[in-house]
Design brief:
By secondary structure, the protein is of the alpha/beta class. The chain has eleven helices and 13 strands. Helix 3 crosses helix 4 and helix 8 runs parallel beside helix 9. The structure holds acetyl coenzyme *A (ACO). The site of acetyl coenzyme *A has 25 residues, from helix 2, helix 6, helix 8 and strand 12.
């Protein structure tokens, strides 16, 4: 029987400080009513003096404990992030040091909000090939450091947090059944952070022009996201020979409640079978799916052999899905 990969432990962490919509009303021209109606978000966590690797460490400790795995037993660490500690070295390397994961290779994946599922697909391939046995995959973001706190169209949307999973080699029927990855770079400027890279290296001009902050064409992105995700979830189930009624739980990327509801409606899934926590976290980008997964696992909302579908959409543009038999 060929190898399969299975998630054997989950963990998550969010910084202590909470910023509510009412707090934001005092910073920019917005309202709790607008943010709630348009996005579903009520509050988000904001890191104070913590970098991405610090968030990774806390989430990872919980995931390792849940899996009963020692850091020394990890073969590979993958961190999905676009707000890492620094451009170089990778946040995964910094996490490797903090965990004391002596035998682990380490690298980052950047696919914005789809990053965790891109990382999951890479991890699944590594394990199924037989090359490694145990992977720690973390999605972590400190988005608050890359937001223009004077731009109401973006600063109300994002939050900080991290979610981690331990993925191990198995031979049974349970585990990751399929992953699908897509991108369309023609729409790269729908969501971007244009400054600080080799195209626009840091300078007084990039600072003055606020190029080190997230820019987003929200409404255009919204329309593509709804259309794309509706097709993605239908195609993923079809490819795996599953009916929507056989799905125990949909775990979507948490960007906007209206997008999540549209996807659930396309599958005729009741919201009781959809993981939603964006009211408490905002959009934590690559951390959103592993945080939501950790919560449903710890709440006992998914059980052995359940089919669960994960899906995400974000900058790139990128989108991705994963079907798991728990
Ligand atoms: N408070 C009050 N008013 C606001 C705010 C705010 N915070 N932000 C925008 N507005 C105003 C706009 O200026 C606009 O006013 P106008 O009509 O006078 O011009 C009006 O509200 C409507 O703005 P829209 O952008 O059309 O609002 P929309 O309903 O599209 O909601 C939102 C905006 C929430 C950003 C939505 O478009 C969305 O969720 N987009 C998708 C985001 C997403 O999925 N991103 C992918 C992941 S992110 C990543 O990968 C990093």
């Amino acid at each position: 029987m060929p190898f399969r990969s299975r998630i054997t432990g989950t963990g998550s962490y969010a910084p202590e400080q909470v910023l509510t919509n009412f707090d934001l009303e005092k910073k920019v021209d917005t309202s709790d009513e607008w943010i709630t109606e348009r996005t579903g978000i009520k509050e988000r966590h904001i890191a104070k003096g913590e970098a991405a690797s610090d968030l990774c460490l806390e989430a990872s400790k919980k995931a390792l404990q849940a899996a009963g795995v020692d850091p020394g037993e990890i073969d590979l660490i993958i961190v999905a992030t676009m707000s890492g500690d620094m451009p170089m070295p990778s946040t995964a390397s910094l996490l490797q040091k903090k965990l004391g994961a002596k035998h682990a290779g380490a690298f980052d994946v950047n696919a914005a909000c789809s990053g965790f599922l891109y990382g999951l697909s890479v991890a699944d391939s590594f394990i199924r090939s037989g090359q490694v046995k145990r992977i720690l995959l973390v999605g972590a973001e400190v988005m608050s450091k890359f937001l223009d706190w004077e731009d109401r169209t973006t600063c109300v949307l994002f939050g900080d947090g991290a979610g981690a999973v331990v993925i191990e080699q198995t031979k049974g029927q349970r585990g990751i059944l399929s992953t699908r990855l897509y991108s369309d770079g023609t729409m790269w400027d729908y969501i971007c952070l244009p400054g600080g890279g080799s195209q626009n290296p840091p300078s007084s001009k990039t600072l003055k022009d606020k190029m080190h902050f997230v820019k987003m064409k929200g409404n255009e992105t919204f329309k593509v996201a709804v259309r794309t995700l509706e097709k993605l979830v239908v195609d993923t189930l079809k490819e795996n020979g599953l009916k929507p009624s056989e799905l125990a739980m949909l775990i979507p990327h948490q960007a906007n409640l209206r997008i999540i509801k549209a996807t659930a409606e396309r599958l005729h899934l009741p919201m009781s079978r959809v993981a939603v926590n964006l009211q408490r976290y905002g959009n934590t980008s690559s951390a959103s799916i592993p945080i939501a997964l950790d919560e449903v696992v710890r709440e006992g909302r998914i059980k052995k052999d359940d089919y669960i579908l994960l899906e995400a959409f974000g900058a790139g543009l990128t989108w991705a899905s994963a079907l798991i038999r728990w």
